[in-house]
Model the fold of this input.
Amino acid sequence: MKYIKQLSLVALLGVMVMGCESPLAEEKLDEFNLEQGGYMRIVTPFPVNNATFNVSKANLGGTKLELVHEAVTPSKGANFAQYELVIRFVDATPANGTNNVADKAFRTIAASTFSADPVTGYPRATMTITGQEALTAVGLTADQISAGDRFEFRGTMKLTDGRAFNALNTGANITGGPFYSSPFFYRINVAE
Done:
């Protein structure tokens, strides 16, 4: 008798569960119509980190930041318009006075300078910034910088529909994750 009661209870619960409908059953996720943006993947060097790029104070024109970017969008970069960079200088050795320089427009790289990679199909380009270019952009002289200081660049990817993506409106998985490798931020450390 006890067995029949337990079996009846299990059967009743089974009928109740199978008879219930989920309130989300009719609301399917349409992943193809979700709004999607883009990001600038760093292909080389990989992985990139804050200590990757250094310039020599003694050879500002001959030392540089150099990396290969890939413009990633759902349309294989067809809606990529340009990549804008701003620069600032951080004086981490204020023995010569504080020479910090706030954000200044540095460079706009047009999509037309990128070319489709034969393997991935995404547009790629090499970005090079010498120490002298960075120094000139912030309006300082070599006497005003020291080993330990740094130039910082922040990028903004612009799409043809006017949307823009950078470190401020992009998730941590993209900016900090090794798969996406898209920090939208680059640092050049000054060395001797």
